[in-house]
Specification:
By secondary structure, the chain is α+β, with helices and mostly antiparallel strands. It has eleven helices and eleven strands. The protein folds into three domains: 100 residues, 2-enoyl-CoA Hydratase, Chain A, domain 1, CATH 3.90.226.10; 145 residues, no CATH class; 74 residues, OB fold (Dihydrolipoamide Acetyltransferase, E2P). The strands form four sheets. It has a five-stranded antiparallel sheet. A two-stranded antiparallel sheet has the order 1-4. Helix 6 runs parallel beside helix 10. About 4% of the residues have low confidence.
Length: 353
């Protein structure tokens, strides 16, 4: 036994930790006591010890010495279990300080093989531990990719995060490639919704979002092949916690980005680059700024699609404008809501009924 260890206190109880009903308890103790006595006798141990581990009414007596009186379950520490009585150890053959010491005292021959996690297993461990962070970063970067068309870096980072997420859970044995396939299918449906059916139907987007969330959740469920198809509450606890943390945190981060990021010059450079592509295909008129004043309340027209930055016309003046986060199509009436230095914040003109 290890220097600091114990053995015993093996009374049968319910899975909730409560005691068995009296009749069931007596039957269970009687049956397993017979098994323990048989195994103990076969291996040269005192059969009364194993029975006293389960039955508090069992007294253990060796010769004239009472090792354990009845009234409580028997539990032995390493020193008590290895005590020599009448020339024989009570239960344990000795105390080993380490694996090497155990092999030496037990006179084990052959090479001692230590199993250590491989590099891929260590990688999978860290990936599964960092699952909420990977999901958070992937969701936020995916949002930025849709928010700033043409800025490919957020999309690349989001893709890397989701690949690492599924790869780590696959290496850990928690998921197969099926979850990744459903995730890709969900992303494809969301892209179809955004690119082709943005103003006509939401079916593709809803189904795609459901497949994405379901695949992320599925990948984190620790289910073995011989377990029931429907996972237990305990199996769902960690995936639900990880996914909830990622979704709530990403909603907070996205809300902060939607509010403050459009005000930064870094964001405007990306947004204007996407809104005003170079080359002969750009059809927005390039005019010099006149002296006509622009102030909050000035109404105009979106020259380019504002997503959220672009060009707006106010009379004969075309200026760079930005919305508070909404996308506004070209040729849509707009109104200046705020001017902050060189930054002109606009919104869609409300049509009075």
């Amino acid at each position: 036994m290890a220097p600091v260890s114990a053995i015993g206190a093996a009374a049968p109880v319910l899975s909730t930790g409560q005691d068995l009903p009296e009749t069931e308890r007596d039957k269970t103790i009687s049956y397993f006591s017979a098994l323990v006595r048989s195994m103990a006798s076969r291996n040269g141990h005192n059969p009364d010890l194993g029975e006293a581990f389960m039955n508090k009414d069992k007294e253990v007596k060796i010769g004239d010495r009472v090792v354990h009186p009845k009234g409580s379950l028997l539990t032995l520490n390493a020193q008590e279990a290895s005590e020599t009585i009448n020339g024989h150890p009570l239960l344990s053959d000795g105390i080993a300080q380490s694996i090497d010491d155990l092999a030496k005292k037990a006179k084990l021959s052959g090479q001692l093989v230590r199993l250590q996690p491989t590099g891929f297993e260590q990688f999978a461990f860290w990936i599964t531990a960092l699952a909420p962070l990977l999901l958070l970063l992937g969701i936020v970067c995916a949002y930025l990719e849709f928010k700033i068309p043409g800025a490919t870096l957020p999309g690349v980072i989001a893709g890397i995060c989701f690949v690492l997420f599924f790869l780590g859970h696959y290496l850990a044995g928690l998921a197969g490639w099926e979850a990744a396939v459903f995730f890709v299918l969900g992303v494809t449906l969301v892209l179809i919704e955004v690119l082709f059916f943005a103003h006509s139907t939401i079916i593709f987007g809803v189904v795609g979002a459901f497949l994405i969330l379901a695949s992320l959740f599925w990948a984190m469920i620790d289910r073995y092949p011989d377990q029931p198809l429907v996972p237990s509450t305990k199996m769902l606890l960690v995936p639900m916690l990880n996914l909830s943390i990622a979704i709530i945190a990403s909603m907070i981060v996205i809300a902060l980005l939607a509010r403050y990021l459009p005000r930064t010059s870094f964001y405007r450079r990306f947004a204007l680059l996407a809104a005003n592509p170079s080359g002969p295909s750009f059809s927005a008129p390039r005019e010099f700024v006149t002296s006509r004043p622009i102030s909050p309340g000035t109404q105009g027209l979106a020259v380019t699609t504002l997503r959220p930055s672009g060009k707006g016309r106010f009379g004969d003046q075309v200026v760079d404008v930005v919305t508070a986060g909404e996308f506004i199509s070209a040729e849509t009436p707009i109104v200046v809501s705020e001017i902050d230095g060189m930054r002109v914040l606009v919104a869609r003109t409300q049509v009075s009924s």
